[in-house]
Amino acid sequence: MNVSQLSREVHYSERHLRRLFQEYLGTGVKTYSRIVRVNHVVSLLCRRQSGLEAAAGLTGYYDPSHLIRDFRECCGITPQEYLSRMSVFYSDPYKL
After folding, report:
1. Angstrom distance (rounded) from CA 74 to CA 71
2. Residue-wise pLDDT tens digits, 70-96
3. pLDDT one-digit tens code per residue, 33-58
4. What's CA 44's distance to the chain center, in Å?
5. DSSP result, 49-79
6. Which of 20, 32, 64, 83 has its CA at 20 to 30 Å from residue 72's CA atom?
7. How far apart are CA 86 and CA 80, in angstroms?
8. Is the dihedral of CA 49, 39, 36, 78 positive or negative?
9. Can you say how many angstroms the Cα of residue 26 is from the centroid of all Cα atoms in its chain?
10. Percent helix, strand, coil in the chain (nearest 5)?
Protein backbone atom coordinates (compact mmCIF):
# COMPACT_ATOMS: atom_id res chain seq x y z
CA MET A 1 0.00 0.00 0.00
CA ASN A 2 1.44 3.37 -0.91
CA VAL A 3 1.07 6.63 1.03
CA SER A 4 -1.86 7.94 -1.00
CA GLN A 5 -3.82 4.70 -0.52
CA LEU A 6 -3.06 4.71 3.19
CA SER A 7 -4.07 8.35 3.55
CA ARG A 8 -7.44 7.64 1.91
CA GLU A 9 -7.93 4.59 4.13
CA VAL A 10 -7.30 6.48 7.40
CA HIS A 11 -8.85 9.79 6.23
CA TYR A 12 -5.74 11.94 6.74
CA SER A 13 -3.95 13.99 4.12
CA GLU A 14 -0.67 12.54 2.86
CA ARG A 15 1.23 15.43 4.41
CA HIS A 16 -0.39 14.99 7.81
CA LEU A 17 0.12 11.22 7.69
CA ARG A 18 3.82 11.71 6.95
CA ARG A 19 4.06 14.13 9.87
CA LEU A 20 2.36 11.63 12.22
CA PHE A 21 4.70 8.83 11.21
CA GLN A 22 7.72 11.03 11.79
CA GLU A 23 6.42 12.29 15.14
CA TYR A 24 5.28 8.99 16.64
CA LEU A 25 7.50 6.42 14.94
CA GLY A 26 10.57 8.51 14.23
CA THR A 27 10.67 7.43 10.61
CA GLY A 28 8.94 8.05 7.32
CA VAL A 29 6.09 6.01 5.91
CA LYS A 30 8.23 4.39 3.22
CA THR A 31 10.98 3.41 5.67
CA TYR A 32 8.41 1.98 8.06
CA SER A 33 6.86 0.00 5.21
CA ARG A 34 10.25 -1.44 4.28
CA ILE A 35 10.91 -2.48 7.89
CA VAL A 36 7.52 -4.22 8.10
CA ARG A 37 8.15 -6.04 4.83
CA VAL A 38 11.62 -7.17 5.91
CA ASN A 39 10.21 -8.39 9.24
CA HIS A 40 7.61 -10.39 7.35
CA VAL A 41 10.37 -11.89 5.18
CA VAL A 42 12.29 -12.86 8.33
CA SER A 43 9.25 -14.61 9.80
CA LEU A 44 8.64 -16.52 6.55
CA LEU A 45 12.26 -17.59 6.26
CA CYS A 46 12.58 -18.52 9.93
CA ARG A 47 9.59 -20.83 9.70
CA ARG A 48 11.25 -22.39 6.65
CA GLN A 49 7.86 -22.45 4.95
CA SER A 50 9.09 -20.68 1.86
CA GLY A 51 12.27 -19.98 -0.02
CA LEU A 52 13.59 -16.58 -0.94
CA GLU A 53 11.70 -16.37 -4.23
CA ALA A 54 8.38 -17.28 -2.61
CA ALA A 55 9.02 -14.89 0.29
CA ALA A 56 9.71 -12.11 -2.21
CA GLY A 57 6.39 -12.75 -3.94
CA LEU A 58 4.43 -13.01 -0.70
CA THR A 59 5.79 -9.72 0.62
CA GLY A 60 5.30 -7.70 -2.54
CA TYR A 61 8.84 -7.57 -3.91
CA TYR A 62 9.25 -7.65 -7.69
CA ASP A 63 11.94 -10.33 -7.44
CA PRO A 64 14.43 -11.82 -4.93
CA SER A 65 17.17 -9.35 -5.85
CA HIS A 66 15.01 -6.42 -4.74
CA LEU A 67 14.22 -8.24 -1.51
CA ILE A 68 17.92 -8.92 -0.89
CA ARG A 69 18.81 -5.25 -1.52
CA ASP A 70 16.15 -4.00 0.94
CA PHE A 71 17.09 -6.67 3.48
CA ARG A 72 20.77 -5.70 3.30
CA GLU A 73 19.92 -1.99 3.69
CA CYS A 74 17.73 -2.67 6.73
CA CYS A 75 19.77 -5.38 8.45
CA GLY A 76 23.30 -4.91 7.14
CA ILE A 77 23.51 -8.54 5.94
CA THR A 78 21.80 -10.71 3.33
CA PRO A 79 18.88 -12.99 4.23
CA GLN A 80 21.14 -16.03 3.78
CA GLU A 81 23.73 -14.59 6.20
CA TYR A 82 20.95 -13.79 8.65
CA LEU A 83 19.65 -17.35 8.59
CA SER A 84 23.11 -18.85 8.97
CA ARG A 85 23.85 -16.67 12.02
CA MET A 86 20.47 -17.21 13.63
CA SER A 87 20.38 -19.31 16.78
CA VAL A 88 18.60 -22.67 16.68
CA PHE A 89 16.30 -21.30 19.40
CA TYR A 90 14.73 -18.81 16.99
CA SER A 91 13.98 -21.40 14.33
CA ASP A 92 12.43 -23.92 16.75
CA PRO A 93 8.72 -24.18 15.80
CA TYR A 94 7.82 -25.49 19.29
CA LYS A 95 9.08 -22.60 21.39
CA LEU A 96 6.58 -20.50 23.34
Report:
1. 5
2. 999 999 999 989 888 875 555 555 655
3. 999 999 999 988 887 767 889 999 99
4. 11
5. SS-HHHHHHHTT-SSHHHHHHHHHHHHSS-H
6. 20
7. 10
8. negative
9. 17
10. 70, 0, 30
- One-letter amino acid of 16: H
Helix (H) or strand (E) holding 18, with range, is: helix 14-25
In angstroms, the CA 72 to CA 39 distance is 12
- Alpha-carbon span 67 to 78, nearest angstrom: 9
CB 79 within 8 A of CB 45: yes
- In this prediction, residues 4-23 reach a mean pLDDT of 94
Note the Cα 68 to chain centre separation in Å: 11
Residue 93: count of CB within 10 angstroms of its CB: 8
Find out whether 6 and 20 touch, Cβ atoms under 8 Å: no
